[in-house]
Amino acid sequence: MSIFIDTSGFIAVLDKDDACHTGAAKIWMDILTSEETLVTTNYVLVETCALVQNRLGMAATKLFQEDIVPVLSVEWIDKSVHHAAMGLMLAAKRKKLSLVDCVSFEIMRLSGVTTVFTLDKHFKEQGFICLPA
After folding, report:
1. pLDDT tens column, 53-70
2. C-alpha to C-alpha distance for 49 and 14, rounded to whole angstroms
3. Which pLDDT value is given to residue 95?
4. Mean pLDDT for the chain?
5. Single pTM value for the model
6. CATH number attached to the domain at 2-131
């Protein structure tokens, strides 16, 4: 089985000032000690790196790259997935639904992943099982 890891999960784990940090850090440790494959995309990595660098600085960015990224199975997005996700985003006509989220939905569906570590309500709206619930 696999668990998809979203940017909001990474941020909550890394940012000790995040309101959800304590709960997210516990769930992250539970995920790490499970037998689950931790899946994300290169789009999520780019988004996370940009946010971590901007909010938390280079030391946190280095920690993310050296300690977290190595335990992940990264799906590299190709042209067809990008276009499908762009179509989903444009069809939704919602300002707050990002291309990165739509790429994540597409990869999760294609890979059969149903559970996601996220604080983003859009995943629940799409029918995925969210951690934390």
Report:
1. 999 999 999 999 999 999
2. 11
3. 80
4. 97
5. 0.95
6. 3.40.50.1010
